[in-house]
Structure formats: C-alpha cells, structure tokens
Amino acid sequence: MSPLLGGELVVCRTRDVSDVGVCLDTAAWLPVGTRVSLALTDPRSGSVTEVIGDVVREDNGKEPALGLLLIDPPPEWKSLVQGAARQSGTLDKPGRRMRVLVIGDSHRQRGAMALYVSSGWDVVFGDHDFALHEVLTDIRVDAVIAELDAGDPRVETIMYEANKAQPTARRIVRGLGRGHCDLVHRYVDRDAGLEALLDAVTANLR
Predict the structure, then answer these.
(1) Is 48 helix (H, G, I), strand (E, B) or coil?
(2) Nearest CA to 53 among 9, 2, 89?
(3) Helices 194-202, 106-119: crossing angle, 10 deg rounding
(4) In this structure, is residue 92 part of a structural domain?
(5) Does residue 40 sit in the same domain as residue 108?
(6) How far apart are CA 161 and CA 134, in angstroms?
(7) Model pTM score
(8) Are residues 71 and 110 in the same domain?
(9) What pLDDT digit, counting tens, does each position of 187-206 carry?
(10) What is the tens place of the pLDDT at every residue in 122-139?
C-alpha cells in the first residue's frame, strides 16, 4: 500500500474485505481522506489485484488498523471477496505480528519486496533521508533493518537514530559485507534468504 501523492510503501495484512472496502492491519498511520493504491495477493491463486481507495477509518490502539473505501473496484475484486468469505473461520487466529521498519534506497526496497511480504511481518518502508527519529517516536517496532551494504556510511547514522529512539528494537543490516558498527546487532547477507533474516530479527541477543 502507498499514498498516491507520495510516501512510504507499506506491507500490510488484510483483516477483512467486503464488496466496497477493506480493513488492513498495519503499523503505518495515514489520516482519514488519504487516497492510496493497494495491491492484494490472493493466497489461493497467487494473483495480484490492484485497487484504489480512500482512508475512511483509522484505529491507533493496541491493534492498529486502517479502513479503506474502494473506488470502482475491478471485477476480480468480487472473486477475491467471495474466496475470503468461503475461507472465513477456517484459520487459527494469528498471534502478535512483528513490526519492522526497513530503511534504504527505493531500488533496494523494490528488490526485497517479495522477501518482506513472505515474512508475515508488519513492514513499513522508509527512504534513508526521511525523519527516522520522528517515525520511531510514533510507531513501536521490533526491528530496524537497513537495506544497505555494510560499508555504506549511512548505516552508522541510521543505527544511532534507531538506538536513540527505540533501544530495545533489533538493529539489522542486510546487504553485502560485514561491518564493525557496534550499534548493529546482526549483519545478514543480501542473498541469504528469509530464514537468515528471521533468525537475525528474532534471535535472543546477548
């Protein structure tokens, strides 16, 4: 999901769908009235349906969520809603999902999108030069991941800000090489795959 007028790209989980709207579990906050572009993956077929909608409800409580009213949803949307209705009640209620902030250049974010979608986490993407400290003041996260190579000079600044704002969050660098920044909990090779990233974020750190 992303605002049409620019902003972070956010990976969300669908809580509920209807013929005219969708409710999303997400740690991202967007004001009521924001128009967004949303791409939903059908877990049965793997197909992607793209829709446009307006934020009409936002809940910033213990389980943050956004309610969207869709604008002229395409015909395939009805099929997605019917499939969700048939599966309703068949899945166990998920436990608490981890929230992860991913910082990096836009081309790296796009390249890693499939990896983060498959993680099942709440993921918020941010460019390296945005107000990191301000974002981390508003959103509680379990990890901050820099999609940068270990030798990138921006790593130390990102990790400093992350540690300052949320010292209990994991601080991970996913890229090429191994650095020596004391603020980084774990370096993960870019080609190591999801399992290595999961381990880095969830491992007990000493």
Answers:
(1) strand
(2) 2
(3) 80
(4) no
(5) no
(6) 10
(7) 0.59
(8) no
(9) 999 888 888 888 898 876 44
(10) 788 776 565 677 777 777
